């Protein structure tokens, strides 16, 4: 295991849109830098932004 990625901090309310931007600009680039094209697991909790429709659609599109 290569460990955890983060933490990522944000001032304000994390909405689905904010989380999607964080995924695209910070979280997934950090994961890709560490793992390249190797398999990894993205674990999310039950926070509402994690299950927002656009977030789910984006993750389904880019992750196998």
From TrEMBL:
The record's GO molecular-function terms, alphabetically, read: nucleic acid binding
The protein's name in its UniProt record: Uncharacterized protein
Q: Which organism is it from?
A: Zootermopsis nevadensis
